[in-house]
Structure prediction request, 202 residues.
Amino acid sequence: MSVPRLVDGGHYRDTVFRGLQQASDLQGATFVGCTFDDGVLREIRLAGCRFLACEFVACDLSLVDVSDSVFRDVSFDACNLTGVNWSRATATLHDPLEIDFRECVLDFGVFRDCDLERRRLAHCVAHECDFRDAVLREAVCRGTDFAGANFDGADLRGADLRKARNYAIDVRTTQVKGACFSLPEAGALLQGLEIVLDENAG
Prediction:
């Protein structure tokens, strides 16, 4: 089966793109209920595109430019999304940013100021990600590796970070009330509080 060709301004509904190799930028296209399976859209610009109720599975979208594009009810499963700046995507009351990630690589991603309330970033690798001032209230972040991630000013109230690891969250600048953490990783929350932990105290 041939893979449909993507064109600027195209409208695609309930289409399965399996093995798509998109090397050129795409502008003003709309995708409704579409599935992208094992595709490569690396380093292209998705300018002013709309993705509604779509699913990406095992795709390479590293360094994709999502400027002014809409993502509503979009899931990413086992995808490479290294270096994507999600703060450039469109996020309005009418078109909120609704993205979920499972077992994805999100390294060097930018989520600054993004509203990810009740979204899913589960079992991912999110090294050096920028979550400054992001809203992650009641988000599911279980099992994710946050080595080097910056959460300054983020709202993590009620978030689920059980089995998450390698995070460095400063509770003086980050809201964590009601968030769920696992031991021993939760010990990282004490960093910066000038508290001495004595493991050998009797």
Summary: The chain has a mean pLDDT of 91.
